[in-house]
TrEMBL record:
<keyword id="KW-0443">Lipid metabolism</keyword>
<dbReference type="GO" id="GO:0006635">
    <property type="term" value="P:fatty acid beta-oxidation"/>
</dbReference>
<dbReference type="Pfam" id="PF00378">
    <property type="entry name" value="ECH_1"/>
</dbReference>
<protein>
    <recommendedName>
        <fullName>Enoyl-CoA delta isomerase 1, mitochondrial</fullName>
        <ecNumber>5.3.3.8</ecNumber>
    </recommendedName>
</protein>
<keyword id="KW-0809">Transit peptide</keyword>
<comment type="pathway">
    <text>Lipid metabolism; fatty acid beta-oxidation.</text>
</comment>
<dbReference type="InterPro" id="IPR029045">
    <property type="entry name" value="ClpP/crotonase-like_dom_sf"/>
</dbReference>
<comment type="subunit">
    <text>Homotrimer.</text>
</comment>
<keyword id="KW-0496">Mitochondrion</keyword>
<keyword id="KW-0413">Isomerase</keyword>
<dbReference type="InterPro" id="IPR001753">
    <property type="entry name" value="Enoyl-CoA_hydra/iso"/>
</dbReference>
<keyword id="KW-0007">Acetylation</keyword>
<comment type="similarity">
    <text>Belongs to the enoyl-CoA hydratase/isomerase family.</text>
</comment>
<dbReference type="GO" id="GO:0004165">
    <property type="term" value="F:delta(3)-delta(2)-enoyl-CoA isomerase activity"/>
</dbReference>
<dbReference type="GO" id="GO:0005759">
    <property type="term" value="C:mitochondrial matrix"/>
</dbReference>
<keyword id="KW-0276">Fatty acid metabolism</keyword>
<comment type="function">
    <text>Key enzyme of fatty acid beta-oxidation. Able to isomerize both 3-cis (3Z) and 3-trans (3E) double bonds into the 2-trans (2E) form in a range of enoyl-CoA species, with a preference for (3Z)-enoyl-CoAs over (3E)-enoyl-CoAs. The catalytic efficiency of this enzyme is not affected by the fatty acyl chain length.</text>
</comment>
Amino acid sequence: MALASGVRFAPRALLRPWALLRGTTLGRTEPAAGGGGDGARRFGSQRVLVEPDAASGVAVMKLRNPPVNALSLELLTELVISLEKLENDKTFRGIILTSDCPRVFCAGLDLTEICGRNPAHCAEYWKAMQELWLRMYLSSLVLVAAINGACPAGGCIIALSCDCRVLADNPKYRIGLNETLLGIIAPFWLKDTYVNTIGHRASEQALQLGSLFPPAEALQVGLVDQVVPEDQVQSTALSEMARWLAVPDHARQLTKNMMRKATADRLLRQRDADTQNFVSFVCRDSIQKSLQAYLEKLRQRKG
Ligand SMILES: CCC/C=C/C(=O)SCCNC(=O)CCNC(=O)[C@H](O)C(C)(C)COP(=O)([O-])OP(=O)([O-])OC[C@H]1O[C@@H](n2cnc3c(N)ncnc32)[C@H](O)[C@@H]1OP(=O)([O-])[O-]
């Protein structure tokens, strides 16, 4: 992690994301609607669509893992690879992260990845979640979350890993860490991310209660930076991006690193132990039962 002026500090080779790819189509490049030169070409994978604009140095990254952008192992892996690709391309200075699925930004962990699975699978999955958080939290790029749908649990963490959040003003688009309501516990690094964003007391309360905040409350508590009408989420995210990009990269990057490094280092120091804790916890019979019941409730709710 070199910290010289302008040098990117995101940790490299924390994992080998390619090794996790199973049957994905990452790397596909296709002309964006409207055509154009290289700057208008979009690329991505089955579950992550990247629309780069070389002229502005900003790429829009869209999650598209229908129906609810649950963070499957494949989605986590494809996100890490897309992020790495943009980090390594000096053309880009910022990413706007948004959803391609209607009404949902991201439903959080894909519960089918940790329910009824063996410990080895849960461990592989958790490492991929850690990896994405580390990459996003320490990214040298400006990340703006354009939250155009519901944003619970792991979805909230993805948003909180960004530098700035714009939420659509729709009472159904609630955001927060609701883990306790599923009978599970946010690990320390999710808790730290929450505390770093909204402070200790508000986190203590919201984490225990599993609070999901509607837009006005999310703004009030500081979980998001702006709440705007749904049709203005993208344009507001672009304006926010311009504000962040007006700052010289090296000064902003080093400041970001100064603010976030201790939190990320805490996980880096105990990644294996954190994985073991997670696996032994979610593989307990009682937790598996809670997760199964929650999934069943979600499936029935649909009907
Ligand atoms: C400890 C670690 C920290 C992190 C913890 C977490 O993230 S824990 C995660 C905490 N996350 C939550 O508590 C969020 C739970 N989800 C929700 O609250 C809602 O789905 C919604 C508000 C996101 C969208 O509402 P909507 O009315 O637009 O959609 P809908 O409700 O009709 O669902 C459509 C389909 O998607 C399915 N499915 C949904 N979520 C998940 C999932 N996470 N996984 C897998 N599947 C999921 C659902 O079963 C249904 O499947 P079916 O029947 O088609 O086979």
